[in-house]
Design goal:
Number of domains: 1
CATH architecture: Alpha-Beta Barrel
Number of strands: 12
CATH topology: TIM Barrel
Strand content: 25-35%
Order of helices and strands: EHEEEEEHEHEEHEHEHEH
Distance between the termini: 28 Å
Helix content: 25-40%
Shape: globular
CATH superfamily: Phosphatidylinositol (PI) phosphodiesterase
Largest sheet: 8 strands, parallel, barrel
Radius of gyration: 17 Å
Number of helices: 7
């Protein structure tokens, strides 16, 4: 019996390379070690689908995040990233900003320019995802980073034929995981950077891990759940 969303692999724990898709070189590296998904941050800017995690400083070519500031030119686009990857490399697109049309724009772009690729989208801005729930060939993960966000996430997950969630590992309590598993949800946790964290979450019932630890992701890709054994 299938227990995961049909839009993601059904084998071992899923290995997801955190932010690796924000660079062609890092995305190629993540694909080479066998990661199932390559997380990529997407913004809509002046008709372009920009690939970056940092925020733009108004009209200036400057990007910022917390205490970090850098010149943001040139900026990678989703089209350029796709051109630099084999068709087999699967992106996990994290929608940024609050443009409600961003999800639809990405799906239409993939259908016209990258027809061999599946659309796997997540966001903490649910208005970007809601219009695409149930769309053929589109996999939706509602993202939850804070406890208060579950108030909006629970009713959406309960209405989905194949509920899927991407959440911060700090929220993965036994009670929350049990509720998600009761509705047969596919569960991915982010900020999972040690084998100990991944082992604990796997024992709770989490299906995959978004991580900066490429060594750990490679071990999972090669050895499956055995890589998490103590």
């Amino acid at each position: 019996m299938q227990t995961r969303h049909p839009g993601v692999p059904q084998h071992r724990p899923l290995s997801i390379a955190h932010r690796a898709g924000n660079s062609i070189m890092e995305a190629q590296r993540a694909a080479a070690i066998g990661c199932d998904l390559i997380e990529t941050d997407i913004w809509s800017r002046a008709g372009r689908l920009e690939v970056r995690h940092m925020h733009r400083m108004g009209p200036l070519p400057i990007l910022w995040e917390k205490w970090r500031v850098r010149i943001g030119w040139p900026r990678l686009t989703l089209h350029e990233l796709l051109d630099g990857l084999d068709d087999e490399a699967q992106l996990f697109l994290d929608l940024k900003g609050d443009n409600p049309d961003l999800g639809r724009t990405i799906v239409e772009m993939l259908r016209t320019q990258a027809t061999a690729r599946k659309a796997v989208l997540c966001s903490r801005s649910y208005s970007q995802l809601d219009p695409l729930v149930g769309e053929p060939g589109v996999t939706i993960f509602y993202s939850v980073g804070e406890l208060k966000e579950f108030a909006a996430a629970w009713p959406r997950l309960e209405r989905m034929e194949w509920p899927a969630i991407s959440m911060h590992r700090k929220l993965a309590t036994p009670e929350t995981i049990n509720r998600l598993k009761h509705m047969q949800a596919t569960i991915i946790c982010w900020n999972v950077n040690t084998t100990e964290q991944a082992r604990h979450l796997h024992q709770l019932g989490v299906d995959g891990f978004t991580s900066d630890n490429l060594w750990m992701l490679r071990q999972i890709a090669e050895r499956g759940a055995e890589a998490l054994q103590s």
